[in-house]
């Protein structure tokens, strides 16, 4: 699982049958320091997240298991809205480098 | 399984029902000497680990479903052990 920021919504009218009624969001994956990591991706949303929200996601096969219909073609799902991330001091070990 | 260090906690109120009651940590994969290897990720805890602990993490969904005895579970990464000691000095890679 990983952190991400919702940066937009995605609307698709014509789509695979089992994806009807599912919300799609554009999400930028983030590091623990909340820095962008990799390219933005489209994820399904089951927690009513909105643009600007800090969220966490689950990827691969387990993404579809966040949905009521669990055998659907999705590969990323927003499964929680983050209130806060609390890190240890110096999480990257910069002081030791 | 992956060797990792717990470097933070994630607090979340609104979440998928299967995440209710689970602790969510930020874990940093490390090598035998404690140096960071791959990018950090999030994992749920099953062994009462804490921030700063070196832990064993599974990062694959079938194992997660076995641990929680669920057929359907949107969780991939689970902390399954707290490491007491790693001795990797005796053999050079």
Account of the protein in words:
The complex is a heterodimer of chains A (97) and B (93). With 97 residues, chain A is mainly beta. Chain A has a single domain, classed as OB fold (Dihydrolipoamide Acetyltransferase, E2P). Helices cover 4% and strands 41% of the residues of chain A. Chain A has one helix and five strands, in the order ββββαβ. Chain A has a five-stranded mixed β-barrel. The model of chain A has no long low-confidence stretch (mean pLDDT 91). With 93 residues, chain B is mainly beta. Chain B has one domain: EutN/Ccml (OB fold (Dihydrolipoamide Acetyltransferase, E2P)), CATH 2.40.50.220. Helix content of chain B is 9%, strand content 40%. Chain B has a five-stranded mixed β-barrel with strand order 1-2-3-5-4. Chain B starts with a strand and ends in an 11-residue tail after the last strand. The model of chain B has no long low-confidence stretch (mean pLDDT 91). At the A-B interface, strand 4, helix 1 and strand 5 of A face strand 1, strand 2 and strand 3 of B.
